[in-house]
Amino acid sequence: MATPRLGLRELADEQTIYRILLDHALRGIRIQAILRLLLAVFVVAVVALDPPAHHLVLTWTIAICYLVWCVALAVVAPRGGITAVRFVWLVLFIDLATLTAVALVASRSDQTSWTSDVLIVGFAIIPMIAATQLRPSVCVAIVVPTVIVFFLAAWAARSANGEPWSSVVLHTFVIAALGLGAVLLSSVQRSRVETIGSLAAQRSRLLDETREIEDRERRELAETLHDGALQYVLAARQELEQFRHDGEGAQLDRVAEALRESSALLRSTLTVLHPAILEQAGLPTALAELVRAQSTRPGLTISLDTAGWPPNLRTDVDALLFATARELLTNVVKHAAAQHVEMTIEYDGEEEGGGEQGGGEQGGGTARLVVVDDGVGVDTQQMARSLAEGHIGLASRRVRIEASGGTLSVEPRRGGPRSTGQGDAARPVRGTVAIAQLPVVIDSSSSN
């Protein structure tokens, strides 16, 4: 089934896609700036190399002002963000008006100079500038008057330079063909942006739906374990306590210890599957529970640094950061053969969007999760083989982070081999550094 294509207006409502569209539009503005500078240099070069016999000062004034204007625009426009994207198309009319004005002033000297005849060649650059627009209608609005003005300028110069009508018509036809090509290129470019944007938007929605399904399944499994197996274990422990009071001996103590360990294991599993504590106490507490649950392997020490995370902070990426930390720690425990793991969470930005009186205003910043281990190190080839074999945990986590506008890097630890110290001085430390960064939106009405 074909993917429905959204228009630019619909795509602009998608925050992640909006950034892509804005970046693409700003690239078009940079290309316009380059072409516009070339046009300005062309106008100045024509006036300098083939100056008109009349109104030379006026011609130079227009040409120099236009060059300065193009340089200033090339510096300012690409930094103007959405405002530049919305209004830069109006500059195309200034380009057309400037070139027309210079050609008209220079045409008064057609009997003695070729200034006007050479200048009208510059009209071919204007459709190329218009082609960088994502609006074919704007391109048409520029191309049509460009063709008309070119024809009128060529017709006005015909009496002086003796150009035959057939040449005027053919030259106008070439400019019109360039204009048509510019309109078609603009249409193709818009179509491609809409198609790619629609695919990206669909991918983002599918990832959101997948995440929701995964969260729901984990919640249901956690509830099943809590209401089922864990309750039976707790009930058995109560019965054993009663038996102990009745005089049972060491066997019951061993059964009680086994049930106690089973209860602890079930609680740890519940925390990993669905961290209710994440919603109640926040990300640092949830990560502390995760670290405690993952620290059961003998010889493995996991430290957690939450000093860079403001107290009572709630963000829209807490669940994603927790899931990423869980996946990274699971990989360390299973594959890294590490002895020490250091986990850090940090937040850079405004803690709340508008303070206590913000009324639900939003603020934002960047959340960062760093996991460093001293294990065998990351092997990019092994990661590729694992992905090919269907082990997509870390890969799917990276996709979800990127879909939320963030990044996830997993790289070898820098600094070279060093000793692990006590009793294992000969073992080299390589290790891995994993860094997840995500943009954050905070609703002040939801902060505690």
UniProtKB/TrEMBL annotation:
Localization per Swiss-Prot or TrEMBL: Cell membrane
GO BP: any one term: phosphorelay signal transduction system
Main subcellular localisation: membrane
Gene3D superfamilies, sorted: Histidine kinase-like ATPase, C-terminal domain (3.30.565.10)
Phylogenetic lineage: Bacteria, Bacillati, Actinomycetota, Actinomycetes, Mycobacteriales
Ranges for region Disordered: 403-430
SMART domains: HATPase_c
Domain Histidine kinase/HSP90-like ATPase, residue spans: 316-442
Listed name of the protein: Histidine kinase/HSP90-like ATPase domain-containing protein
One of the record's GO cellular component terms: plasma membrane
The organism of origin for this protein: Gordonia jinhuaensis
Transmembrane region(s): 33-49, 55-75, 87-106, 112-131, 138-156, 168-188
GO molecular function: kinase activity
